[in-house]
Amino acid sequence: MGNGMGSERGPEDGEGAGYSMAPAERLPLTDDCHHYGGKDQVPWDIQKYFAQRYSVFSWYDEGVYLTDDAWFGVTPEPIANQIAVDMGAADEKKTILVDAFAGAGGNTIAFALSGRWQRVIAIERDASTLACAQHNAQIYGVDPSMVSWVHGDSFEYLDALANHPGALHPDLRVDMDTTVLFSSPPWGGPGYRSDEIFDLHSMQPYNLEQLHKSYESMDHVLYLPRTSNIRQVARLAPAGCKIEVVQYCMQGASKAMVAYIPARNPTSREDEPGEEPPVEDPMSTDSDSSPSVQKSTAPTNGLDSSVS
Ligand SMILES: C[S@@+](CC[C@H](N)C(=O)[O-])C[C@H]1O[C@@H](n2cnc3c(N)ncnc32)[C@H](O)[C@@H]1O
Fold first, then answer.
1. Is 101 in the pocket of ligand 1 (CB under 6 A)?
2. Parallel, antiparallel or unpaired: strands 303-304 and 243-250
3. Angstrom distance (rounded) from CA 190 to CA 266
4. Which of 137, 150, 217, 287 could lock onto 123 through a cystine, CB 3.0 to 4.6 A?
5. Which residues lie closer than 8 Å to 163 by C-beta, 6 or more apart?
6. Is the CB of 169 under 6 A from ligand 1?
7. How many structural domains is the chain composed of?
8. Residue 5 in domain
9. Closest-CA residue to 226 (of 185, 251, 196, 190)
10. Ligand 1 within 6 A of CB of 186
11. What is the DSSP string of 8-55?
């Protein structure tokens, strides 16, 4: 696990000296990083994911590396690409994208290659996973100057950005008004796989409240289980604002629910709990025929029903 520091050597050394967080250097691949060449090398609980490796990374054979844990959470490439397109439609004044849970780089690579952002700040607290992400970004030809990798805790980063930005290396001090945040947290917790409707209050290790509290002053995008309770998401809408919720589908089945949430307006009375909006079933998907990615949205009170 990471230590909240900006690099393996620690911010007291080199360029990160004196800062609580600084861009990470290129981290070495470790014994926990693997490029499996065949099913016989793959632990049994990952074999299902390994079978889908080209949907996850189409360039897998070029030498993509993952930790065993990363297989469970990586965003499949067609979905990462579509999210990058959709986030690219943000207001032009948004120029920086923060990826709060970079993982093995699935989303970070798509954001960096989209050409839409001046820079992507990609945060990952596990050194081996971050090393995989850096390696995979190189395989995909990401310009190293496009991504500031951070080895640390994204909640600590956001807290520092909001409350004591001087603690951050200058490259990590961004204007929150011109920044959007993407968050694909771990989806642990009881019932994520089995419940018809997943209670986002019980998501572990970070529940919806914790995520929202950390993100609410910025436009942010949450990548959530497909069965997430959409009423809980709808309640996050700042006063007078709408949230767009999109189901991202592959082969006719939803892989994730993604919520596009505007920043809290500091002058509004957004802190007052809103009435629970009526909600329609968000789980409909468009068809079984499969272009690489399909999207479907569900209209709700407070949620935009538009599909781009
Ligand atoms: C679901 S995965 C992200 C997958 C990523 N979007 C991808 O496509 O590869 C979640 C990642 O968040 C990391 N993580 C967990 N807590 C974190 C924290 N507080 N700050 C930064 N990273 C964290 C985990 O190590 C894990 O790699």
1. yes
2. parallel
3. 35
4. 150
5. none
6. no
7. 1
8. no
9. 196
10. yes
11. TT-TTSGGGTT-SB----PPPP-TTEE---SGGGS-GGGHHHHTTHHH
User: What is the value of pTM for the model shown?
Assistant: 0.87
Domain that holds residue 94: 74-261
| Cα 223 to middle of ligand 1, angstroms | 12
Residue 187 in domain: yes
CATH code: domain of residue 182: 3.40.50.150
Residue type, 96: I
Residue whose CA lies nearest to ligand 1 atom number 13: 101
Atom of ligand 1 nearest to the CA of 101: 12
Q: Is the CB of 77 under 6 A from ligand 1?
A: no
Mind listing the pLDDT tens digit for each residue in 33-92?
999 999 999 999 999 999 999 999 999 999 999 999 999 999 999 999 999 999 999 999
Per the domain annotation, does 113 fall within a domain?
A: yes
Cβ of 74 below 6 Å from ligand 1: yes
Pocket test for ligand 1, best of 32, 82, 83, 124 (most atoms within 8 A of CB): 124
Q: Do 56 and 106 contact (CB within 8 A), yes or no? A: yes
